[in-house]
Amino acid sequence: MEKEISEVLLDIAADLKRNNGQPWALTNDSGDPTVFDARSELYIRDIVLDKDNNPCALIPLGHFEDDTIRDIAEMMRQDLPQIFKPSTKCSDPDQLQFFRKISVTKFWYCEPNLYHSDLLPDADTPASRLREKYLGDPEELLQDARTDPEVHAFLSNSALWLEGEIDADSFSREQQEKLLKGNGYSWDFFACDMDRNQIICEIYFEENQLEFRNDI
Fold it and tell me: Rounded to the nearest 5 degrees, what angle is found at the Cα of 203, between the Cα atoms of 202 and 207?
């Protein structure tokens, strides 16, 4: 008598457990997949247990439609700390200051939290040493964070960074002009509204840093 499919799934899960949690390859000696699913019209190359010990098929994302892949990429980026997102840019390499455009008027800014005990001028800490190492070289900082767990942890620790969103539209025209004039900018200096709004947000961030602490 043929087993119920629920029993077959339990047998597969048991075999995967005995495989020490490693993926089980469903390929021939040439490395080609041998199991084809007619409903999804996809070959299944590997299976693996998920966190709940359910057997799952590993299917390369390249088999899916372009829009599906883009949706997955966008969802993954939403879970990333802001500083790791592709649209993040450096506004001041010597201070390791970064920003990201959210809208035409709103921008996210961050830089090391020099009020934190680990980043005070006399601090001899891993965080302080990493900051000193990468001052002036933000691209290397972001690149090393992909492969070096210590650097990744430094960037991911929100307490070590001043960060927040600023919306230029939250200020009156008078307040905007005051921020610009105090830093040597005229209203008409900028090529477009977005450039002006970014500088307004940047100035506010730099002049009101205590508002952007995450460690208190």
Answer: 120
Three-state SS at 109:
strand
% of the chain at pLDDT higher than 90:
58
* Residue 112 host element (H or E): strand 106-112
Query: 54: which residues sit within 8 A by CB, 6+ positions away?
Result: 9, 13
Closest CA to 123 of 109, 112, 108, 136: 112
Q: Please tell me the pTM assigned to this model.
A: 0.66
Q: What is the pLDDT of residue 79?
A: 56
DSSP per-residue string spanning 16-73: HHHTTT--EE-B-TTS-B-EEETTTTEEE-EEEE-TTS-EEEE--GGGS-HHHHHHHH
Amino acid at 153: A
